[in-house]
Model the fold of this input.
Amino acid sequence: MRSVSEALTASRRAPLLSILGVVTIAFSLFAFGLFGLVAINIRKALEQVEERVEVRAFLEDSTDIESVAAAMKDIGEFPEVARVEYVSKEQALERARKEMGEFADVFEAGVLPASIEVYLRSGMRDPMTVKSVADRIRTYHFVDDVRYGEEWVEKLYRLRTITTVAGLALGIAFAAVAIIIIGATIRMTVLARAKEISIMRLVGATDMFIRLPFLIDGLVKGVLGGLLALVFVWAANRVVNEYFIQTIFFSREMVFLGVVGGAFMGVLGSLVSVGRHLRRV
Amino acid sequence: MIRLTDVAKEYPRSGTALAQISFQVKKGEFVFLTGPSGSGKTTILKLLYMDDKPNRGEVWVNGVSSTTASGREISRLRRRIGIVFQDFRLLEDRTAEANVRFALEVTGAPKATIRAKVSRALTQVGLASKATSYPRELSGGEQQRVAIARSLINDPFVLIADEPTGNLDERATRGVFQLLRDINSSGTAVIMATHDLDLVRRSNYRTIELNHGRLVFDSAESPLSPRPSDPTMAEVEAAGDTQEKS
Ligand SMILES: Nc1ncnc2c1ncn2[C@@H]1O[C@H](COP(=O)(O)OP(=O)(O)O)[C@@H](O)[C@H]1O
Ligand SMILES: [Mg+2]
Done:
């Protein structure tokens, strides 16, 4: 109780410093949150794209329907395969017309071959697995060609790896910046209260007693900064949603985790700073 | 109660501040610590309230040893030591009363007792009527009384005063000194660093004199030569000079 009021007294004594502290924490977390938002949206997009990854086997015109059915049954039993669908020439034409709209007339019946579409189970859509499935399907003598957008799949995966690595690196960098800023804020508060602290020492206040208000100060600022950053990120997300593209927002758990992260940074920043500067007062 | 045995203190840049210091202070004693500026008075007092540790030797204060004391023990010890300085060290943005109360608040004293203790301490130093004044509204002597009231708040067994009259005029000096005598006569030991030799000569208290970080005179050891300027001092001063050359 005493420490809370002490911490708040300290903040009231240096209001500008404290506001600066909270805002800088918020900015750091805002950058962090914005990046996180981009990251989860890329991830989401990747997942959606992955769901569409399929292996398509084009069939020779002369193939009889029994062989196709037998092959489909075989392929359907591959451990990687979720489901197999047959697309007849007519269906292929229909689909092409729908997709091409006004250019639909260029297609004539019989131009597009029949095919088997193979959908893979989730978790089985990485480039290696897709290629191995495609290679096995290619062995059927009536399969003319197998397509699975190999380059595309690989690119998607590379993009995903890059975003994950960049996310971690930037996240850690931003966290470090936030901790340094909080540390600097605490340092200024410690210096501003140097006389008070030295008198506390003199009359026999314990180290923990002297530290606690600073830790609580860091905690409060971290939480406030986290909440402020949340508002910023949420607003930015709304703007993007309104004028650009549909995005998803953090889940409630992730928001909570972000605020806890802010609190953690606040406490860590003050812990490091207080430990270092109290010794010199 | 207080014992220093063969204490030495060296500072990284300025070198030896104290060497071969040994003395004891008994319960309820009044001791002057004298010597020219830079002779090590402040350093000794710092060792007593364990703001610093000696490089050699040992300092014992009320059962706490400088060689083993933990941070928590030192905090507890300081609650039983009153400390005042030449520059008062009051918080400018708090009233006299709040400055005194501060010492209780930050040591976790029970709330119910604080009010009575603060008013008793201010009465003891004769400042009950100035309780709500801010330091800038008080004279130097009055500010030092507030600092003394703060140092007395936890009933210390010893009061350590580093040149408490150094910033005061003649009249205020006499007043504060008389206050310290009163405090001492009620049973609290007082260790007072000063270079005001008039003050030292006019009273009959034990005197420890330092020079270049050495203890050159202790009236408790040679009660017949109470003054630093006495011829008996020649020998030790010669020792001090050799120290200087080396
Ligand atoms: N914190 C310090 N760092 C380095 N040297 C110091 C420090 N404090 C005191 N000294 C040195 O120790 C010696 C004794 O100083 P001090 O105890 O303050 O003397 P006095 O109080 O008798 O004037 C001086 O030479 C001074 O320069
Ligand atoms: Mg001094």
